[in-house]
Design a protein that fits this description.
- One of its GO terms (molecular function) is glycosyltransferase activity.
- This is Mannosyltransferase (GT4).
- It holds the Pfam family Glycos_transf_1.
- Keywords: Glycosyltransferase, Transferase.
- It is a single chain.
- By secondary structure, the chain is of the alpha/beta class.
- The protein has 2 domains: 163 residues, Rossmann fold (3-Layer(aba) Sandwich); 147 residues, Glycogen Phosphorylase B (Rossmann fold, 3-Layer(aba) Sandwich), CATH 3.40.50.
- 43% of the residues lie in helices and 16% in strands.
- The chain has 13 helices and 12 strands.
- The strands form 2 sheets. The chain has a 6-stranded parallel β-sheet, with helices on both faces. A 6-stranded parallel β-sheet has the order 9-8-7-10-11-12, sandwiched between helices.
- Strand 10, helix 9 and strand 11 form a beta-alpha-beta unit.
- Helix 1 crosses helix 13, helix 6 packs across helix 11 and helix 9 packs across helix 12.
Length: 331
Amino acid sequence: MLQQINYIFRKRLPQYNSIEELFGAIQAKLKDKVEIDTQELKLSGGSPVVILKNILSFRKKSPSQINHITGDVNYMALVTGKKSVLTIHDIGSILKGNTLKRIYLKLFWFTLPAIFVNKITVISEFTKAELCKVIPFASKKIEVVYNPVHSELSYCPKEKNSVCPNILLIGTKPNKNIERTFEALSGITCKLTIIGKLTENQLKLLELYKLEYKSMFQVPYVDIIQAYKNCDLVLFASTYEGFGMPIIEAQAIGRPVITSNIGAMKEVAKDTAYLVNPYNVEEIREAVLSITSNVEMQNKLISKGRINVERFRIDKIVEDYLTIYKDVINA
């Protein structure tokens, strides 16, 4: 008899797909090894009323099932029982706001869930170090399982374009550092493809710096894959990431990457991307000019990136999760 794994997902919203794409791919690989069940919560948000209603909606089908809380709804650990795994994707994007809000979020997203679950998985050593500071009492429960690169992403070589390269930017939230990126690209002949909803201020900056661009928002993953294939370079100089999926997605397609020399991005990319200080506009600019004008450098980064991606192949990640499920069963 196969072990039953119940995956608990947040309510799906059109603008947020990363967790669903990630664990959907993992479920597809696991379907012959475990019995899979899925529960999508009915409400989104983090108010006390939403938390209470979502908790009350939980139904355990079998006392032996393992419940895997896939992210963003950590508070569900209060009712899923000891045979539970909680995946935490990052810390910084949650613990922000005024003091009262931070206390509330820390309690329901970290402290209480950490007491109830058997295992906590995080997506980078960087996130693990951050989380251990927040819940030091639960440090022995925390294990790193990297995000897998999507199996639909495969190497797709493209003719080099040094005249007017297409530069892909992923995300428009404050941590994506897109305002400094725009400034760094000012005066450089290029076309931008931007995935994410642009703010009024970002639109004004695009006009101010006279940058040619195309923006995409709430698009299916197949369109994002095509954006990777169409680009010449991925520029991902974030100030904070729990992991940094665009790094390995771009490398899987075969595109050079510029990313930040801090946190999880440095951990994920290692020496296979052009690393920059995300707070230094001139450094970002110099990286773009260096790569777009040097075909040899592009080829070197592409080759190293393809090797780096092997660390994140889905078969390895699936085995890591199976090991964790076995540990929970035997606990």
